[in-house]
Design a protein that fits this description.
heterodimer, A: about 110 residues, six-stranded mixed β-sheet, five-stranded antiparallel β-sheet, 11 strands, B: mainly beta, four-stranded antiparallel β-sheet, globular
Chain lengths: ~110, ~110
């Protein structure tokens, strides 16, 4: 995905907290998605942020700053099953498509 | 039980052959999408359709074709013109009033 930047890989240990950052181009922006994808499987929805601020859903939280073109996904109390790729995607003007970043592969170790 | 189905899960073809990947949804969603995923490349949009009998090219449409004759179905044909067809192909759908896309389980195509 052009204009969307996220780290390629991250590692963390079980029980820890990890923050995955995503930057995007601010023009024509209509919201930002985070999806989780386990290897060989379909992406599953985690969050959708339209307004600035932090939204919390259990162990996962997502933050958005529209003025800075910046978002992060915060994962707390990491579990081994959280090892997956995390995809950031923005909603360009028109709302009909999503533009995905290349994904961040998170490896959780014991 | 509503959802999106893609079949088969794994598909093998010889170089030079066209192959059609199926995508069916019973969610009554208006829009459907095809993505290609390669290692380290994220999801790239091939084609999408917002209504029956209409579709638009995505970022990497060359070597692919689609049809949308029914609301429930959006098959993708990978033609022999596609230079590097081996990839994981994901289909998605979206209700017209929302922005969230729901994904099917994917088809892994290997062309040798």
């Amino acid at each position: 995905g052009q204009n969307i930047d996220q780290p390629t890989e991250m590692t963390a240990t079980e029980g820890a907290i990890v923050q995955i950052n995503c930057t995007y181009q601010t023009s024509g922006f209509n919201g930002l998605f985070w999806y989780q994808q386990h290897a060989g499987e379909a992406p599953t929805f985690l969050s959708y942020n339209v307004l600035d601020g932090l939204e919390e859903k259990g162990r996962f939280s997502s933050f958005l700053s529209r003025s800075k073109g910046y978002s992060y996904l915060l994962l707390k109390e990491l579990q081994m099953k959280d090892s997956a790729s995390y995809l950031c995607a923005d909603v360009p003007s028109g709302y009909s498509t999503l533009t995905f970043g290349k994904g961040t592969m998170l490896l959780v170790s014991p | 039980d509503g959802g999106i189905t893609q079949s088969p899960k794994y598909l093998f073809r010889k170089e030079g052959q066209n192959v059609t990947l199926s995508c069916e949804q019973n969610l009554n969603h208006d829009a459907m999408y095809w993505y290609r995923q390669d290692p380290g490349q994220g999801l790239r949009l091939i084609y999408y359709s917002q209504i029956v009998n209409d579709f638009q090219k995505g970022d990497i449409a060359e070597g692919y074709s689609v049809s949308r004759e029914k609301k429930e179905s959006f098959p993708l044909t990978v033609t022999s013109a596609q230079k590097n067809p081996t990839a994981f192909y994901l289909c998605a759908s979206r209700d017209g009033g929302t922005v969230e896309q729901y994904f099917g389980p994917g088809t892994r195509l290997t062309v040798t």
